[in-house]
Amino acid sequence: MIATDKRKAIFLLPQEGMEVRAIVRRLGVSRNPVRGIIRQAGVLPPRVRTDKQRLDEELLRRLYQQCQGRMVRRHEKLVEKEGLQGCYPTLTRRLRDLGISTPQTTRCPRVPEEPGLEMQPDPSRYQVELAGRRVKLIASLIYLRYSNRRYRTFYRAFDRFKMKGFLHEARTFWGGAARQCIIDNPNLARLRGSGANALIVPEMEAFAKEHGFGLRCHEIGHCNRKAGAERSFWTGETNFLPGRTFQSLEDLNAQALAWATVRMDNKPQGKVGLIPAKAFAHERQYLVELPAHLPAPYRLHGRGTDHYGYLTFGVNHYRGPGTKRADVKVLEYGARLKIYQAGQCLAEYPLPPEGVKNKHFSPPGQPAPLHPAKNRRPRTEAEEKPLRALAPAVQAYLDFALPIKGIQRHEFIRRLLALSRKMSVALLTRSLERARKYHITSLETVARSAGIYLQQVAGALPLAAVDAAFTHRQAYQEGSLTEPPDRSLYQDPP
Fold this sequence. Notes:
alpha+beta, 5 domains, five-stranded mixed β-sheet, four-stranded antiparallel β-sheet, 17 helices, about 35% helix
């Protein structure tokens, strides 16, 4: 094949008066190719492929629908029913040329990298080892597209409130925000649609307007609008998480913040060796300045105080100042609580670290109450232990019917303990054995069974009266055509 530059020279030399023989001697090309190139004006003609067997486009599209897009099965049907003699690669090339197997896509427009123009947040799921135990977490990351500066935080759960709090934290840390926030079509911020036609949730749209930036969904398939976030997640998976140990979620977030804002900010990145800290020093003046008094996102909760002035929030208890019982409003921020009454802030508490449960917090300078509130019932370990010691049948029934955790577990234990004090151990044992045999978890049914046992002289309860003519009913005749039910669940336990 003759190179393009040589073809152009062969075409131009005769115009300067050089004969074909001289061109052949100088360039070492045969006469026939030289004459052909001159006739073609030095332009290589397009190569047109001619197939030995023509494949009908309508036939290929119909088989594509019938075979559900499976290429191998479509080739088999062409060979069996249509007598196709072509090979498998010929079929795949023809389908690609027609745009059947691989839809035709358009190129992504290149987005200019202007300082202060774009920032992009994105969440991702991880399994991280905390204190020797693997837990599921959600990492939320945001980066500035011009300077590649990042901010990262891990959460147990990530909802719309956490998303607003994360964006506020990043904006506060940077001292400003980019004019556009490009999101990856998440349901937390997108109401419906995608790309330029996406409709943003009114709550998130109002939040973005308040903070001086606009929310925008990138077009599906435009990888250049999310490559920075995906690359940042990959760098975290391969550089941050391996070789590090974390004792708690707070420890993980502290290390993640130092890694993202100190180490990665001063490390050259990419082929050009961009240092995010230096690039951000130039981009900082283009960010949208926001007032310092702009409040952080919060959620409003209504609570009531008990006799000792405590209100319950989450799994802990917080005391409000004053001597009267009243309803208060609790404002939940990302890292603290504020208690309001009649428009006045009574107290402010930092949220305790993860894992702190059933603790009482009081304002500084005020003594804690001498006694806990009477309506806070203790846990049921003391009630469960004597119940299990009554009889093996009671212990077996508890293992079967006891919920794993939650308020229902404690309520079930207390009710069963109260029932055990109303009857003898033998009667309770027989009632619980019958309940376990028939998979009964209702204590009301257990109490009725015990009452029937007391009324019977014999040891076993009588069976229910059954009409022997039930096999002649129409419903029974219709149901007899189905498979017999599995009654192994109701057999006597071993």
